[in-house]
């Protein structure tokens, strides 16, 4: 298992967290996503994680890295 940590912009509510969760769990090999609304921290667990792919997906969803 791998773990990747990101800090992103624009996370304001549970709806934002759900959008991030739903968007990222569509990427193969991502098994879990946790979002801390107050800080914008996103913790991703999975295998063979591609940090660039995840970062691009976050930006596409409207939550670019800080």
3D architecture notes:
A hairpin with a 4-residue loop joins β2 and β3. The protein is globular. It has a single domain (2-61), classed as Alpha-Beta Plaits. It has helices at residues 14-24, 51-61; strands at 2-7, 30-36, 41-46. The chain has 66 residues and is of the alpha+beta class. The protein has two helices and three strands.
Sequence-ordered SSE layout with sheet pairings:
Blueprint: E1 2-7, H1 14-24, E2 30-36, E3 41-46, H2 51-61
Antiparallel strand pairs: 1-3, 2-3
Helix pairs in contact: 1-2
Which features would summarize this protein structure in a list?
66 residues; alpha+beta; Alpha-Beta Plaits; 3-stranded antiparallel β-sheet; 29% strand; globular
Mean pLDDT: 97
Q: What is the CATH top level name?
A: Alpha Beta
Q: Architecture in CATH?
A: 2-Layer Sandwich
Biggest sheet, spatial arrangement of strands? 1-3-2
What is the H-and-E element order?
EHEEH
What is this entry, summarized?
This protein has 66 residues and is α+β, with helices and mostly antiparallel strands. The protein has 2 helices and 3 strands.
């Amino acid at each position: 298992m791998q773990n990747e940590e990101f800090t992103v912009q624009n996370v304001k509510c549970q709806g934002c967290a759900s959008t991030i969760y739903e968007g990222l769990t569509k990427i193969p090999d991502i098994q879990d996503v946790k979002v801390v609304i107050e800080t914008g921290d996103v913790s991703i667990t999975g295998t063979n994680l591609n940090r660039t792919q995840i970062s691009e997906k976050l930006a596409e969803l409207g939550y670019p890295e800080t």
